[in-house]
Amino acid sequence: MKVIRTVYGIQNQKKKLHLHPLGFVPTMGALHEGHISLVNNATGECPLVVVSIYVNPTQFNDTEDLKNYPRTLSADLGKLGTVLRENDMVFTPDDKEIYPAADNRVFHFGNLDNVMEALYRPGHFNGVAKVVSRLFDIVQPDVAFFGLKDFQQIAVIRDLVRQKRYNVRIAGIPIVREPDGLAMSSRNRLLEPEIRKEAPVIYKTLSVASALIKDHDISYIKNFVTKTIEKSAGLSVEYFEIVADTQFIPVKTKKELKNGCRYYGCIAVKAGKIRLIDNIEFPLV
Ligand code: PAF
Questions:
Q1: Together in a domain, 133 and 13
Q2: Span 240-244, mean pLDDT?
Q3: 35 catalytic, yes or no?
Q4: Predicted local distance difference test score (pLDDT) of residue 133
Q5: CB of 150 closer than 6 A to ligand 1?
């Protein structure tokens, strides 16, 4: 694999190789098995893959979170070295390469701006849209791979692709979990040990709740999820919503559920100082 820092370097290398489809895996580093699964999916279908590692300041609405975000470049390159091939590239730009001038663009994503992550992380998706559109312009991929843990982010990116007419397919890749069920996340390593022990209750509770949808009201399920998780010391639920993957309008009553739609329970939990998100399908049949 080649490690490239500049836009010029990426574009030059692409021109030389001219291999398609070109797969792209954007990351913020601190790579774990979830990222490796994205990369493996990319190399499985694309003869050339670019992985970017860039901690994007514009998507952090909390300066402490940006400061504490794990940066582990040499370990990341070591991991990528075991899964990428000779021609594949790792793009490690600095801020000037991504934002040569102030980026004041404002994006609108309809209802996606009014629910779940958008309410708790104001400006976050605008920052994601800035960096992803910039990266798409630089890399010009045919397929881009994103983890389904960031469920709302994928919907935002699909909308960005539609609005900007990018000729790129967005592939959503299933969540990879720790053996105890906790969804893999770069932030897991920041959890205090006592809280890390409690964190698997999030997925366990979602799994139980997903089976309740047939026989229980939405308000009962929401109450069950919040109460069960908050029994664990240090965990507090920011939101838990059940949404269809097409609409992202939180379901309030069972009457709103439509056959043929796929519903997901989406959650954000404050685990000590660290914010964790997860989701699971709530099958209607
Ligand atoms: O999902 C992430 O890691 C980031 O939001 C992304 C897509 C790499 C943009 O910085």
A1: yes
A2: 97
A3: yes
A4: 98
A5: yes
CA distance 102 to 91: 21
135 lies in some domain: yes
Whether 228 is in the pocket of ligand 1, judged by its Cβ within 6 Å, is: no
Task: Tell me whether residue 179 is in a domain.
Answer: no
Is residue 87 a part of any domain in this protein? yes
φ, ψ for residue 123, nearest 5 deg = 85, -15
Domain count of the fold of the chain: 2
CATH of the domain at 140: 3.40.50.620
- Convert the pLDDT of each residue in 89-141 to its tens digit: 999 999 999 999 999 999 999 999 999 999 999 999 999 999 999 999 999 99
φ, ψ at 83 (rounded to 5°): -120, -20
Angle at 261 between CA 258 and CA 265, to 5 degrees: 100
Q: What is the largest CA-CA distance in the chain?
A: 59
Please count the residues of the chain: 285
128 and 29, same domain (yes or no): yes
Distance 129 CA to ligand 1 centre (A): 9
Confirm if 124 and 85 have CB atoms less than 8 A apart: no
- Nearest C-alpha to atom 9 of ligand 1 is from which residue? 128
Q: Is 88 in the pocket of ligand 1 (CB under 6 A)?
A: no
Pocket test for ligand 1, best of 71, 151, 153 (most atoms within 8 A of CB): 153
Q: What domain range includes position 231?
A: 186-282
Last residue of some domain: 173, 196, 229? 173
Claim to verify: residue 191 and residue 256 sit in the same structural domain: yes
Residue of 152, 158, 162 lying closest to 170 (CA atoms): 158
Residue 150 to residue 146: CA distance in whole angstroms: 8
Query: How many whole angstroms separate alpha carbon 274 and alpha carbon 160?
Result: 28
Catalytic residue among 18, 20, 32, 35: 35
Residues 6+ positions from 95 with CB-CB distance below 8 Å: 57
Does residue 159 lie within any of the structural domains? yes
